[in-house]
Structures are given as C-alpha cells and as structure tokens.
Amino acid sequence: MTRTIIFTGKGGVGKTSVAAAHAVRSAREGCRTLLVSADMAHNLGDLFGTEVGSAAKRAADHLYLQELDPGQLMRQEFPNARQALIDLMAGAGLAAGGLTETFPLPGFDILFSLLKIGRLCRNGGYDRLLVDCPPTGETLALLKFPELLSWYMEKFYPVGKAVTRAMAPVAGAKYRVKLPSRKAMNEIGRLHESLVELQELLRDGSACTVRLVCIPEKMAVEETKRSLMQLNLYGYCVDGAYINRVLPEEAGGGFLLRWRESQQRYLDELERVFDGYPMTRLPWYPQEVRGMEAAGQLADALPETLGLFEIRAHAENETYEATSSGWLLRLCLPGAEGGVSVCRRGNDLEIHLPGAARCLPLPDTLRTAVMTGYALREGMLCVSFQNADGSEGGQG
Predict the structure, then answer these.
(1) What does the alpha-carbon distance between residue 253 and residue 292 come to, in Å, rounded to a whole number?
(2) Total domains in the fold of the chain
(3) Which range marks the domain in which residue 358 is found?
C-alpha cells in the first residue's frame, strides 16, 4: 500500500512548503513520489514555478505534482456516482430538471477529492503520496466526511432501497414523482462501500498519518492544539509536528529579540502539547520558499534520519478493554480539558467536546451493554459499559 502523509495546519503557516520539502526529500531517495494538492486555493505551481494541473506532472526525477479539481473529477472519473446522487436528490424533490454536465453538486466537492485520493492510495502507482490539505477547519471537514456520510447511508440506505422498490410504481402513476432507479440505488450502494474502504484506509495508522504544521504564534498554536485533539477524536494517527519559521539565535537584537522571546514561549508550550510526538523546528529563511532550489533547501532542514517516512508515533487512540463486569472504551484526546459530554443513542455513542462532536458506531459486542459512566482524565476519555447479563467482558 502507498505510504500516505497528510499535511495540514492553520492558513499561512507554510503547509505547502513543508509538504514540498518532504516530496523533494522522498524523490531524492529514489521513491516515486506524488505531491497532490487538495486545497482549492492551489499553490503548488506557484511554489515550484511551473504550471500544475489536474493530471500528474513530472517536476523532477521521481517527483510528480497534481492539483485536484473536484468538478473535473466529478465529470470525468466519477460520472456514475454523480448521476446517482443527482437521481437521489431528484427523487427527494431536491433537484429540478435541466441539470447540465457542469452542474456542481453543492457540498460534495470534498467527496470527489476524497475518492480520488483513495484511488491514488490504492492503485496510483506511487511509492509515497503526500497530500497538501486546506487549512485545518476544511481538512477536518474533509477527513470526517467519509464517516459522516457513511453513517447517514447506513441508517437510511437500506430503508430507501426498500421504499424505492415498493413505491416506484405507485409514485409514478399516482403522484407523478420519479423515484431513484434501481441502478441509481445500486450505484449509491457502491459509493457507500467506497467510503467505508476509504475511511479504513485513511485511519490505517500503519500506512496513512497526519503531520501538523504550525508557527510559534498564539493563534496558530491554539488552532494546532484543537486540531490534535479533534484528529484523535475522529480516529486519525498524528505522527509528528513541524514548527515553521523559527527565528535563529543569530538574528539581530531589539525588534527581533522581542520576537524570539515571544516565539520561545510558544515553542515551550508546543513542546508540552506534543510530548511523545516527534517535533521538528524549521528555520525562518531570509527569502521565501519558491522554486526547486528553495524547496531543496528546506528539505535539507528536515531531520537527517532514515525514518522520516516511516510511522514515527503510532498507538491505537481508540481501544476497548475487557473489565470484570463489561468493557471500557479508551479514547485518546490530547489537550481536551473539560466540557465533554457523552451519551448513547441506540448503537451509537455521541461524544461532544467544545467545537467538535463525533457519532461513534459501537461494535456489535456492546449492542446489549449499558453505558454506566464516563470520565476525562489527562487527555484520556474513558467510557464504561456493563454487560446486560452481568457477564465479564470478552464473553459477550
């Protein structure tokens, strides 16, 4: 499976530059590497000083660049999925007739970019896939989209398929409403399977990890802390952080001295936040990172270790442990301090944190178990379950 690294961080912290440095370093090692931009505000072309489009372009030996265009992907690579979604919307009365081939499905740009990333991971023909993602808010929306859409489809798709089969003749004859065809519903089913596979792929910490990029400034640090917590909440493996634009010690006094003192406070805070994670400081260069030579210079500043592209910090952040009376769910939420609430609805566990929420499907083993309590201690959420028959965990 292709080694995949996702780069994200607050806007303007240098995500693209850090991702490009990794790509250059990977290509130097002789690995066929694709650096792909999933940010609608593409700037790979600006950084490398070349025109980059929706098809992979060779930029150097073993190095390829690509900028995803969701509209083009929708029309050219996933036309069946697009048509099935339009048919489903039409059947629900959400879409009028006369849709053109260029009609953008609102809110589904993320879907087609994700499906393309999934294809590249599985059979793109690359040794390493590096994804330059949008700022953290959009990245989190992108990464939780497969689970969210899959949850809705698992809840409503079987019912919708049965209703379509039973009601289609009546709806057409009596109400003049065109329900989605069996072909469209089957395509939705295949789309659902693709999303489940993609979700498993992106959460497979042995192949896909997330690296956060930050600068030592207040707003960037706070957003990075929230991102680390939310990525763990959604089940993604973070295996490192890059602190960009760190002023060197030899920088002049006065104005720059005060900046260095300010940066040092936030560097100390980030050391505490990322305790246990590999953290790399990257210098603030006197010139902008632009062009292959500049990207190569930044690549030289990456850690001189053989494990730069290996999984550098991987532990299960969502585990179930058998207890004497049932089960204990442990969910790692680094940086979470309070305001957490947990409740069970059917076979789902709803977890709410300030600014984040997740509906976590529980395993079948806990289908009849009762949630008895939860607690958040030092960044670890523990939720206890008791077996309905009082048996010990592992026997249900």
Answers:
(1) 32
(2) 2
(3) 318-386
How far is residue 390's CA from residue 393's CA, in Å, rounded to a whole number? 9
DSSP SS3 for 280: strand
pLDDT per residue as tens digits for the range 55-112: 999 999 999 999 998 888 888 887 777 777 776 666 555 554 555 555 556 666 777 8
Contact of 198 with 114, CB cutoff 8 Å: yes
Half-sphere exposure of 3 (CA within 13 A, CB side): 14
Q: State how far the Cα of 34 lies from the Cα of 231, in Å rounded to an integer.
A: 24
What one-letter code names the amino acid at 161?
Answer: K
CATH number at residue 236: 3.40.50.300
Distance CA 194, CA 189 (A): 9
Half-sphere exposure of residue 47: CA atoms within 13 angstroms, side-chain side: 26
Structure tokens, 333: 């939420």
The single-letter DSSP state of residue 364 is G
Is 313 inside a domain boundary? Answer: no
239 and 358 co-located in one domain: no
Q: Which residue has the higher pLDDT, 319 or 41?
A: 319
158, 78: one domain: yes
Closest CA to 248 of 234, 235, 263, 238: 263
In angstroms, the CA 152 to CA 201 distance is 20
| Whole-Å CA distances, 348 to 55, 151, 178, 344, 360 | 40, 10, 33, 6, 5
CB 170 within 8 A of CB 154: no
Q: Which of 153, 164, 148 is nearest to 107 (CA)?
A: 148
Q: How far apart are CA 195 and CA 154, in angstroms?
A: 11
- Token digits of residue 251: 């920088």
